[in-house]
Automatic annotation (TrEMBL):
Its cofactor is Zn(2+). It comes from Marinoscillum luteum. SMART domains: Lactamase_B. Residues 12-194 form the Metallo-beta-lactamase domain. This is MBL fold metallo-hydrolase. Signal peptide: none annotated. Keywords: Hydrolase, Metal-binding, Zinc.
Amino acid sequence: MKIKSFVFNPFYENTYVLWDDRMEGVIIDPGCYESHEKEELTDFIKKTGILIKAIVNTHCHIDHVLGNYDMKLTFGCPLWLPEGELEIFRAVKAYAPQWGIHQYSESEPDRLLKEKDHIEFGETTLECISVPGHSPGHLVFYHSGEKKLIGGDVLFRESIGRTDLPGGNHAQLLENIQTKVYTLPEETEVFPGHGPSTTVGYEKANNPFIKGA
């Protein structure tokens, strides 16, 4: 599985394109908002020759969904959201102007994902793991064969997702990191929604918010 990351929008959000040797792939959390950001993402996908099978959100805070509408329209593919994020998703349109975002368009989801569902493209399968706390329906996507985790805003390098937004729960996030993320192999590479990648083992040893047992 190949992974290409982009940093988009004023929140410095990580958008990921995943694909494999069959040249099928998915876009995870398209945060592209400005026209040049949309062009950067679209040009990469078209020049690389990737057939986008779906747009997928780990969760639905504004910085992770800004490009949903345009990417769905551009690539003619479905939009998949975590089933527990619908309320969060619907709220974006109302509060976007408060963040100076006036050109947001909402897309209708085509599939609602839940724990133990699978995302498939080419010969690749990702498992959906439910890790609420940063947001109520947050999912992470795990490739067990290559030990790679698309982690959204759950776990960052030496940090964790904020829990002061609607639906956040600090104790729940810590518990789920411990039981859902830290139980993965230590060499698992974590690709977060902001900042550089890390590994489960590094965070268990160094994360000041929650270290491994």
